[in-house]
Amino acid sequence: MDLALRGTVAVVTGASKGIGLAITRALVAEGAFVVAGARSPGPELEELVRGGMVEAVSVDLSTADGPGELVAAATARGSLGVVVVNNVGAAHPRLTGFLDVTDEDWITTMNLNLLSAVRTIRAALPTMIAAGKGSIVTTSSVNSFLPDPTVIDYSASKAALTNFSKSLSKEMGPLGIRVNTVSPGPVSTALWLGDDGVAATVARAGGGDPAAVAEGVAKQSVTGRFTRPDEVADLVVFLASERAGNVTGSDFVIDGGLVTTL
Ligand SMILES: NC(=O)c1ccc[n+]([C@@H]2O[C@H](COP(=O)([O-])OP(=O)(O)OC[C@H]3O[C@@H](n4cnc5c(N)ncnc54)[C@H](OP(=O)(O)O)[C@@H]3O)[C@@H](O)[C@H]2O)c1
User: Fold this and answer.
1) Nearest residue CA, atom 24 of ligand 1?
2) Which of 33, 54, 88, 216 has the lowest CB atom count within 10 Å?
3) Would residue 169 count as lying in a domain?
């Protein structure tokens, strides 16, 4: 299937690792140019930069100005992406309970998981509206509708992110801009499986083994495994393309059947 993304400039947040890196790769494979934001590019994103179809922007997207700086880098290329992928996010397990989650924890989570998307979209929309077209795809999470006290602030931030995206889709639809979310279950990235990832943090707290924690989580899906980042990327890139031209205001779950309800 030709996604007709050749010549498109896309903005991807949280692009140096994990799902964002896979989305960047997939967009480049479809012929798009990607302006890729993370605090530090890392070797894999740098390799993509050497391929000539990626500009890496070192930026803290949790700050008030960071998202605007990333979008400005795309605008400076002459044409802002009509594709914006809000992917950046982080989860910190709260294993000692809600009462230990401080205001600072909540604000940090909301800045990165919700406001980074709000600010990126705010910066990008004027050009998209002028173009009269575009696609915004945001990485939410199954936790947006599967609230979990061990990631209580993360769950709330993702619920807000999905809700925000749906509201925005209603305003932007008549202007030719589509707004969708994808909601992965556990994905095999550093967020879950890294040295400071969820599995290691949970294992440390319980004196267990990170691999056993991950295996237990994988078994909760009917496929028995984590989703791979490239599988999320394929879904995102389809939604980014005009092949999904009448898809807006929707949330797409990719979780190996973890969520068993309709
Ligand atoms: N993995 C999962 O199981 C899973 C499930 C559902 C949803 N998600 C969502 O998917 C998205 C990506 O997650 P992932 O698993 O790919 O995470 P990841 O492997 O930890 O990668 C996160 C990316 O975001 C960047 N980043 C983090 N903080 C940043 C900041 N303040 N400013 C700029 N960039 C920042 C990181 O680069 P730097 O560290 O260099 O900044 C990295 O490129 C997140 O929104 C997450 O909530 C993940």
Assistant:
1) 14
2) 216
3) yes
